[in-house]
Amino acid sequence: MGVDLSVAIGGRTLENLVGVASGTYGYGSEYEEHLDLTGIGALYTKAVTMHPRPGNDVPRIVETPAGLLNSIGLANVGRERFVEEKLPGFAALPCAVIANVAADFPEEYAEVTAYLEAHDPNGALWGYEINVSCPNVKAGGVALGAVPRQVELTARLVREATDRPIIVKLTPNVTDIAEIGRAAEAGGADAVSCINTVVGMIIDVEARRPVLPAGTGGLSGPAILPIGVAATYRVSRAVSIPVIGMGGIMSAQDAIQYLLAGASAVQVGTANFVDPRIAPGIRDGIVAYAQRHNLASVSDFHSLLG
Amino acid sequence: MGVDLSVAIGGRTLENLVGVASGTYGYGSEYEEHLDLTGIGALYTKAVTMHPRPGNDVPRIVETPAGLLNSIGLANVGRERFVEEKLPGFAALPCAVIANVAADFPEEYAEVTAYLEAHDPNGALWGYEINVSCPNVKAGGVALGAVPRQVELTARLVREATDRPIIVKLTPNVTDIAEIGRAAEAGGADAVSCINTVVGMIIDVEARRPVLPAGTGGLSGPAILPIGVAATYRVSRAVSIPVIGMGGIMSAQDAIQYLLAGASAVQVGTANFVDPRIAPGIRDGIVAYAQRHNLASVSDFHSLLG
Amino acid sequence: MPLFDGRVLANTEIASDYYQMDFSWPTDVRAPSPGQFLTVRVSRTAVPLLRRPFGISGFIPAESHPADPPEAIASMIYWRRGPATALLAGLEPGDTLGVMGPLGVGFPAPEPFSVPILIAGGVGVGPILFLANTLAAAGYAPLLLLGARTASSMPRVNAHHHVQVRRSTDDGSLGFRGTAIDLLEQTIGVVSGRLEIFCCGPEAMLRAAHECAVRHGLPAWVAMEQTMGCGVGACMACAVRVNRPERYARVCTEGPVFRSTEIAWE
Amino acid sequence: MPLFDGRVLANTEIASDYYQMDFSWPTDVRAPSPGQFLTVRVSRTAVPLLRRPFGISGFIPAESHPADPPEAIASMIYWRRGPATALLAGLEPGDTLGVMGPLGVGFPAPEPFSVPILIAGGVGVGPILFLANTLAAAGYAPLLLLGARTASSMPRVNAHHHVQVRRSTDDGSLGFRGTAIDLLEQTIGVVSGRLEIFCCGPEAMLRAAHECAVRHGLPAWVAMEQTMGCGVGACMACAVRVNRPERYARVCTEGPVFRSTEIAWE
Ligand SMILES: Cc1cc2nc3c(=O)[nH]c(=O)nc-3n(C[C@H](O)[C@H](O)[C@H](O)COP(=O)(O)OP(=O)(O)OC[C@H]3O[C@@H](n4cnc5c(N)ncnc54)[C@H](O)[C@@H]3O)c2cc1C
Ligand SMILES: Cc1cc2nc3c(=O)[nH]c(=O)nc-3n(C[C@H](O)[C@H](O)[C@H](O)COP(=O)(O)OP(=O)(O)OC[C@H]3O[C@@H](n4cnc5c(N)ncnc54)[C@H](O)[C@@H]3O)c2cc1C
Ligand SMILES: Cc1cc2nc3c(=O)[nH]c(=O)nc-3n(C[C@H](O)[C@H](O)[C@H](O)COP(=O)(O)O)c2cc1C
Ligand SMILES: Cc1cc2nc3c(=O)[nH]c(=O)nc-3n(C[C@H](O)[C@H](O)[C@H](O)COP(=O)(O)O)c2cc1C
Ligand code: FES
Ligand code: FES
Fold first, then answer.
1. How close is the Cα of A24 to the center of ligand 3, in Å?
2. Is the pTM of this model over 0.80?
3. ipTM exceeding 0.95, yes/no
């Protein structure tokens, strides 16, 4: 039986619903040197910001039980060098490229997006993932992504800046993630993705200070799989736009959990560090499962949870 | 050097700051049959509710990467049989016993507490842990423990019911756990404990439904260690009452992370299932560390984080 | 003191993906009775995290074999099916096995002069084998019915010579063709005496054994399974629905063995 | 294709808690150069999760030794210090090693006719040994200074006969008494020629080597370490502060070897 793993988002189609998550695959070129990116549905770039950011003090990552805690600090070259140095390479990649956009306030998200729009006449970018979930970014003390009104406003302003698909990326560090998902939808997002990392801290007991100089960091990897699946399930029931699930996916089985929970696509993050060839294998595993269970397309996964 | 691992809470003292967490050690008698409880500072009982609760459908637990997802459903014999069947055994235990109280609304917490007060003339109970963090318990759709006003009210009403120490147990499933901690303090809590379990879900991909019939469950174990340490750090900086830290403690090193993050005591939960003798070993490990680092008492741990 | 480090003495494949592990059992730990179980700590890391429960398939007291210092030998039979059992299958003689046990309530003794009929399928073979051998040594003449899918998945077991073993396979490749319950029905029809049924295996088999027992008016005992947290009655994870006002009993403490009529079969 | 399964050929303790692992390296994978590294997947479970980086301590091309089918042999020297290296220490000949490499930028060739002085401490011994042997084979006469805390932690290494090895221990139990940097100072004082310094070891040693080089007006190259996520430049985890407008460089891609003056020493 043929299995269709494509997913429609905001009038466009991703042929393969398995993507690689922002911050874990760079801009494609890093891995491409080593590996064939065929088999990856979408590359979500490292965050792009208004200005270059050097990133946080080191160390920036530390391993936790079945997890990874990071505080990279949105290290990136900024929108201008992104357009000059990274964008030209995207056309040659065998997968869709989605720019992950980060900013400090709603208008700035729109401004970065508008800049990328203006400098990508050939459409190297398939769409945008709006990272409102960065714990560093605050709106009056609380993370912007935790305030429904701010998320809605951000989506609305970005919507005015582009006709390409907009995916709003949600943080799990909130009381009610479904509410944030609804706000993104109300603002005009074409999809939401979840989850970004979970706030965590690890302390070096010999040095008697947090391992990460920033204090807290974002937890990713297998440890958060159940958190991501629960969030995806809740958001899927709350919105009618597609949900892109992630958090701890290490195998096709894990990805299928997300699809059954209501996701229409998935992203693989930390697992790329363990095995950079893992995403295509996950896609193949989903196809084999779909065949075994007689599921023709991703919507057939959703009927199962009621 | 002598190390003092006692901690003062609401005018009473726990001689040993390492306790065993609610729901993981029953009422002491279960393990006591097999093991000596000496070396455990406090036993936090399984939740006690107004009426007996049979608990949820099975299976009630499932293992996740470095974690445990549970949906026990507060299975317990209710306040009356608790008083008849469990309370009499506590006097013989070599450790403090703290009743974990769960209820559906603020007044009910106070009622259960008042009932236990009235039926414990000999003071078998050292104090109360008020479990406002049970995900099943809702206040208008949102968990009671996620609403500062409700938490404050609950603490206030329970405060009127008893002079013994009250510890309010916080949920991590909120946007701002520090705010909830402050609410508990404002209501008159003598301490706060954190964290309860993190909402999660695991799906059986062959059966195509959540493994736990309740859908979501609570995640505990090493996977959540960084989440608990971060929460403890945040709450410790927000309140001036003692904080009791927990979540994923499997070793003295893990417990020390909590103390350095600001906790004045810790609880060991899921680790008891792996090794029921683990809590006394953790206490010994903390003592050895304190000696090595010249820390005379728990407050010496706190100066380190600034 | 039910927590101890056993020493692996043997770890042998006794059918495809079925293993028998023999390990030392200290003399100061109570001897297990059939139907009781133990939990094993399979890893020092957080994956897999939980101890795993296994039935006990045999026990040789210290008095019955030479060892210096004296120690007993316990056995368990396990199916290699996931991460924990894969790690167990990798253990070698001399390795350490972290054990907590014996735990739970085992099988009751059959009425004197009754004929015990023991039925096992899948991972139920261990406890039932231990029961069969114990009963045979106590003077009973138990009938042991072993069911498997096919000949290669039928565990090779050492049964006491007073145990009468009959085997069934779903595909008929060994012994009786059909399920162990079909074999039970057939056996009940031909064996005379006061029959008493003891069953351990997948839940569907337990229920079928129960129903068969009810049909024939026979008493039946079943060993239940449920995912376990603590193994000692503290966490309320291992619930099984029973016909009592509390609705649930704990497999680890009230069980694993229950009278089949106590269970609220779904 | 830099991802491959190596076969462990030997795994030998060469000092207390120091091991050398030799493993097969496919002929279709580029040969490593000294200072480059690889990452190893140590576990199939989620604990430990990340691949771990290790320098390459030696390489024997397929042409230089008989094997059928032809394959090269690579080596690494590692310190058993935590969960991942404990798992590595448990590997035996014939086991599989999941390797990604060679990665990063290695040591540059010294100026012709210069005298390379190589200093290693701790886990830095592998890359420096590889460099020493490569330089010796290329006609240089490198001086190799190996520092250790005490005699028992001094790795036993096979150095090319054109490598002049000198050892220092902090407690004087073997060779020179003092740090490798003390030995470096002393060596610079007595060796003539155009000296060039190459150092791999703990950060304090690298900084001291840099400062020593600056004092003497010598060029120095240091191999940096930083916790790594991806190992290929994608995650920005392995940052090291450099004297450039961007403030940070990536150890895995721009390094691990840097000119010592490029580093913004704290
Ligand atoms: C009282 C009792 C006696 C048992 N006796 C035996 C026996 O004699 N031989 C045997 O092979 N197996 C026995 N089991 C089942 C055994 O516990 C599982 O096969 C084992 O836990 C599988 O672990 P795994 O990691 O290999 O597989 P997993 O892939 O982790 O699990 C496979 C299945 O095993 C069960 N399981 C997993 N974790 C637990 C747990 N913590 N507690 C209980 N069940 C779990 C679940 O049903 C799961 O779906 C018994 C179980 C119980 C409750
Ligand atoms: C470029 C480079 C080359 C290296 N070469 C060698 C070598 O030749 N021999 C050798 O013994 N060691 C080498 N190391 C260090 C080696 O990676 C660590 O010793 C190893 O990761 C320890 O893992 P563990 O689980 O045993 O210990 P852990 O207890 O996990 O870690 C101990 C220390 O190792 C470091 N570490 C842990 N995880 C990572 C990671 N993902 N990336 C980098 N460092 C980490 C941290 O500093 C940590 O404090 C090198 C590191 C780098 C970056
Ligand atoms: C090192 C690292 C860097 C990350 N950087 C970004 C980022 O720039 N923008 C973003 O939206 N998410 C970022 N993330 C979050 C991931 O995209 C993903 O949401 C998260 O890691 C959960 O998925 P995983 O468990 O599969 O890794 C980063 C994650 C890691 C581990
Ligand atoms: C099986 C199980 C049952 C629990 N029951 C309760 C409970 O009744 N009341 C409560 O406040 N917390 C309960 N908890 C939460 C624990 O007390 C603790 O907050 C949590 O497990 C985190 O700690 P850990 O990671 O050390 O287990 C339960 C946890 C588990 C695993
Ligand atoms: S396993 Fe904990 S009560 Fe049975
Ligand atoms: S380890 Fe990822 S950029 Fe270097």
1. 6
2. yes
3. yes
